[in-house]
C-alpha cells in the first residue's frame, strides 16, 4: 500500500546537544558489533545468552535469559557495578510527563539505549562509559497522550533503529550514531505519535503508531532495513466494506478515528510467519454511544503475516470497550503438549491462552482479585456490568483504566513453566462527558479519577492453565516489567524505588536495592568477559496519574543502574 506523506510537517533541525556535552556523533566510535547481527542471529537470539539482541530478548516475548551466574544462592551479594545518568534536558520532558521506560539492548559488550525527547546512547556495557549519543528534533508541542517516553531500540546490519515522539522511524549508524535514514509514518497534526520499540524481522523493521486518545486510526508499518523504503501498512480499524467494518456504525466516520493503535512491540513465530500484536482502545474512550458495535480490531490480539502485512486472525479481548482496556500487552509464545500457544495478560484482568496458529481460545482465567467492570466466562462470553453510561453520572470500577497490568511486561520461564506477572489492583471513577471530535484534541469521552487509596500490587506466578502458584504481595501496584533468568530469579522493580530479586519457584524475596526513583521500565541481563550484569532504567513518571496518582510528586530520576556480583579480589 502506498502512503502519501507529502503533507506531513517536518520538525526541523535540533540543536546538537551532544556537542554541548563533549559527545558528537562520530566523535567516538563503537566497535562494529552490530554489523554481524542479521535475521539468522535474531532467530537464534537465546543461543547467545551473553547478549540481549532484541526487545524481549527473543522473538517469543518470554523475557527469559538462560544466564545463571547470578542465582538464588548468591544473589544476596549483588551490588551496583555502574550507573549511567541520562539527564532530564529537553523541551517536552516536563517533570510530570517523562519516564525512563526502555529495555537496554546489548551486543557483544556494547549497550544501545533510548530515552525520551529523541535521545539514543551507545555505552560500554562493562563500564557504563558513554561512546556516542544522538538527539532527534522533537517539537515541544507534539500531542502526547500518556507521557514523553520511548521503550527502546532495535539493532541489525550495522544500524540502530528507533522511533520518535513526532512519529518518525530512524536508522542510525551503530558505530557512530550518525543518521542513515529517517521516515515519517504518522501525522502529528492529527495527534499521532510513536513510542514503540521497533522489531526487526527478515529485511524489515516493524513499528506501530500511538495516539488512540486523539481519535486516530491505528496502524502497523514495515520499512526496508537498508533504505527505509515503506513495505506495507496494516490498519487495525477496517474501512467500510472490509472484514470487520460491520462492527462499526454504518454511517459517519467513527471508523476513521477508531483508535486500535499498536504501541507495544509484537512477537514473532518464524514457523507460522506471523507477527502477534496487541491493539489499543477504541476512540473515544468510555463513550460507546458514538461507536456502536464491537469495534474491531480494537482491544484485540491480531496475527499479521509479516511478508504481506495482512491480518490472518484476531481475538478480541474486550468488545465495545468502555473502560480504556487496551490489549497492547505482550503476546508470549510457548509450547505445551506439542501445541503452539500464546499467553496474554490483558488490562481487563483476564489471562488469555490461545492457539497461535489460528487464534482458537484455549483458556481464560482472571489474574487479579478485583474485577467489577464485567465478567468473561471460560467459553469467552463477555458481559459488561458497570460502565459510564449516563452523562455526568460517576461510575466506579475495577481495574482502573491502567488495567490489572498495563504495558509493562510479564515474563515466562521454560525452566519452571511459569508466567511472572506485575499486577496492579487499583480502581477508578469515570464520569461520561461527551466530546465532539476535533483533530489533535484529546478524544476522551469521560473525566477519570484513579483511586488514590485502597490499592495493592503483586508479582504473581501462574501456570499455563491459569492456576496461581505463588504471589509476592506489595502495598503499591507493580508498574514495571519482570525479568526471569536461568538462575531461577525473577527481577521486579517497585514504584517506590526498590529493585527486587525473587525466587522463581517460591516467590521468596532474596535481595532488594533502593534505586532512588520508581520503576516503569524493562530490565535486561547480559554477560561481558565472563561477568553477568542486570541493567534497569530507573525514572518514574509517564502516565503516573493513570496508574498511581498518589505518587505523582515522587522523584522522577533518569538513571540506568547496572548490577553484578562483586569481582574476585
Distance from first to last alpha carbon? 61 Å
What portion of the residues fall into strands of 2 or more residues?
Answer: 25-35%
The major pleated sheet works out as:
5 strands, mixed
Shape: globular
Unreliable stretches: none
Provide an overview of this structure.
The protein has 2 helices and 38 strands. The chain is mostly beta strands. Strand 4 and strand 5 form a beta hairpin. The model has no long low-confidence stretch (mean pLDDT 93).
Quick take:
By secondary structure, the chain is mainly β.
Describe how the helices and strands are arranged.
Blueprint: H1 39-43, E1 64-65, E2 79-85, E3 105-107, E4 110-114, E5 119-124, E6 130-135, E7 154-156, E8 159-163, E9 168-173, E10 179-184, E11 199-201, E12 204-208, E13 219-224, E14 230-235, E15 267-269, E16 274-278, E17 300-305, E18 311-316, E19 332-336, E20 339-345, E21 350-355, E22 361-366, E23 374-376, E24 382-384, E25 394-397, E26 411-413, E27 418-425, E28 428-432, E29 446-450, E30 456-462, E31 468-474, E32 482-485, E33 489-493, E34 498-503, E35 509-514, E36 524-528, E37 531-538, H2 544-547, E38 559-564
Parallel strand pairs: 1-32
Antiparallel strand pairs: 2-38, 3-4, 4-5, 5-6, 7-8, 8-9, 9-10, 11-12, 12-13, 13-14, 15-16, 16-17, 17-18, 19-20, 20-21, 21-22, 23-24, 25-28, 26-27, 27-30, 28-29, 30-31, 32-33, 33-34, 34-35, 36-37, 37-38
GO molecular function, one term: oxidoreductase activity
Family: Belongs to the bacterial PQQ dehydrogenase family.
Cofactor: pyrroloquinoline quinone
